[in-house]
Amino acid sequence: MPMKKVMKGNEAAAWAAKLAKPKVIAAFPITPSTLVPEKISEFVANGELDAEFIKVESEHSAISACVGASAAGVRTFTATASQGLALMHEILFIAAGMRLPIVMAIGNRALSAPINIWNDWQDTISERDTGWIQFYAENNQEALDLILIAFKVAEDERVLLPAMTGFDAFILTHTVEPVEIPDQELVDEFLGEYKPKHAYLDPKRPITQGTLGFPAHYMEARYKVWEAMENAREVIKEAFEEFEKKFGRKYQMVEEYKTDDAEIIMITMGSLAGTLKEFVDKKREEGVKIGAAKITVYRPFPIEEIRALAKKAKVLAILEKDVSFGSGGAVFADVARSLINEKEKPIILDFIIGLGGRDVTFEQLEEALGIAEKAIKEGVEEDVYWIGLRKEIL
Amino acid sequence: MAESPFKADIERAQKELTEKMTPGAIAYIPGSSVINKTGSWRVFKPEFNKDKCVRCFLCYTYCPEPAIYLDEENYPVFDYDYCKGCGICANECPTKAITMVREVK
Ligand code: SF4
Ligand code: SF4
Hints:
Chain A: It is an enzyme of class 1 (oxidoreductase). Chain A is an alpha/beta fold.
């Protein structure tokens, strides 16, 4: 029987790692994800998880150790956040290019300066082009489930790419919620053993990994990463289906909420989706035709799903906790890019919101909704809207 | 100059690596680095003076490539296909039997 426990998001991530039985975990403590490796090292010390726990002196070393372990052919896990993820940046490309299915839990946190330990998505969004698959969790249960799914997808022979699952700093990492811990046996069945055919260490059959790629080879090698990411779309959907069959919880690339007759659909990711659904409920009671959509998988970007969504509404309003300076929101750019060649497309609005742990309130969502309603009648006034900005102190 | 002892490996690796792109660009043969001829990066070239050499092997030991091997009499032979011209050998040589000279005059 699956067990239900009340736990923090960080503990849920550690439990997911325990259930996946990685052979090597290398991690460096960083707020807000410190508890993940702490809890895992406890599991290892208590003999509940048979794994090598490598203590390192930085995140750059943590991910480097993971690359080494994964290249040797074992299931590998790590956790980090914010500046720690930024410090891993260089090696993230290498992990993807070498096609090593490392899985990483991320407590999504803002980047410096100023130093800020609270939630937004700037850390993982900034790594969107490294070749890592990206999941975003709405709650602690999703954090656990999406880490298991991340292993399943990453290790699939059609994919073989590393994957990260983000869950919002403090809103999830440090907040307790009831979480169902799946049966170990079922998880074992779901994931199977990791036996790579491409990357492994066998002294009897030496191979060269991480080779030099001259101009004559580099482009093909990068195309293979592109192709693997494209393959991941199908593999993720299959994994979601199998997960639902085994564990009863349904996941989708894009989860829609009351979108069927919606004029305005607000799109977001992570824990903000929970707030947004409540807001939609409230506005629906008031008779406003509004719906919500949550992007669960950000890389590969769910282009087809966004196209289907765009056919339903007059406005797609993107609410995102990240900025691409000099351009706008990153999710907005992806949504807009998905629709650029569609004959008919809705108005797409770009809302930057809740950076660095600023609470996203109903008043702010009202403000965004007001702008969306006005845009239908009078058109779009600004390329990017900063919602909840304290203009008086600027 | 004596022929590289890696000639057969180079040919084999060359064949396998150019035929099919593998996941992660992994080379499923040992010694793929031999096909990447780093000699083209060189600006300075080690010049060897046999009369001064005491056959201490220090150059052979320190060459990072390794682009030095030893002939039948244990004198160093420089493989200019791989010598990147770092000058470590010249620096380590106790008798100054190696001097770095600019490749292009
Ligand atoms: S210059 Fe450097 S690479 Fe060339 S032989 Fe000397 S040590 Fe080796
Ligand atoms: S280090 Fe100098 S003396 Fe020693 S073997 Fe090399 S060239 Fe000869």
